[in-house]
Amino acid sequence: xxxxxxxxxxxxxxxxxxxxxxxxxxxxxxxxxxxxxxxxxxxxxxxxxxxxxxxxxxxxxxxxxxxxxxxxxxxxxxxxxxxxxxxxxxxxxxxxxxxxxxxxxxxxxxxxxxxxxxxxxxxxxxxxxxxxxxxxxxxxxxxxxxxxxxxxxxxxxxxxxxxxxxxxxxxxxxxxxxxxxxxxxxxxxxxxxxxxxxxxxxx
Length: 203
Hints:
The chain has helices at residues 3-15, 19-64, 66-89, 105-111, 116-128, 136-164, 172-188, 191-202. The chain has one domain (3-202). The chain contains eight helices and no strands. By secondary structure, the protein is mainly α.
C-alpha cells in the first residue's frame, strides 16, 4: 500500500466542502462546539466504520444488485434535500440561547450511509488503494484508520470555523443568510447525484 497517497487522499477529501462539513459548521454556529461534539464524533468514527463495511463486502453486494445502490442514492438525495430545507427555514433565535437539538452520535454515524460523498470516498478509497491479497482485510482497516487519524482534524477545522462565526454573526439577518448559504451549498453537493439519477432513470 502507498500510505502517503492514502494520507493525501484522506486530507484533501475530508477538508473540502461536503454534507458532513457543511452540517458540522452549521451545528457549531447554532449550538456551539460542546453541544456539537456528539455530531463531530459520529462523523469521525462513523465514516471509518463505513469504509470497513464497504471494503469487506457491501461494495460487492452493489455489484450484484445495482438497483440497491440506486435506491440508497435516491433516499440519500431526498433526505439531504429535506435537511437543506430545514436548515434554510429554521427559526432564528439569539445565538446565546441554545434552543433546538444537534445531531446525536448515532444520528451522525448513521448519516454517513445516506451521504453521497461518503459513499464515493469509501468505495473510491477501497477500490483504488487496495490489492486483492492475503492482507486485504488489513489494507481496508489501515485505510479506515488513516481516515480516522487524518480526517478528524480536517473536520474539526469546520467545527471551529462554525463556532468562530458566532462572534461575527450577531444578528438574526446574518444568521439567516448563513443558514440559507449552507443549505444552498448542501444542495449544490447533490448536483452530481441528481445528474446520475436522471441518467439512470431516463437513459
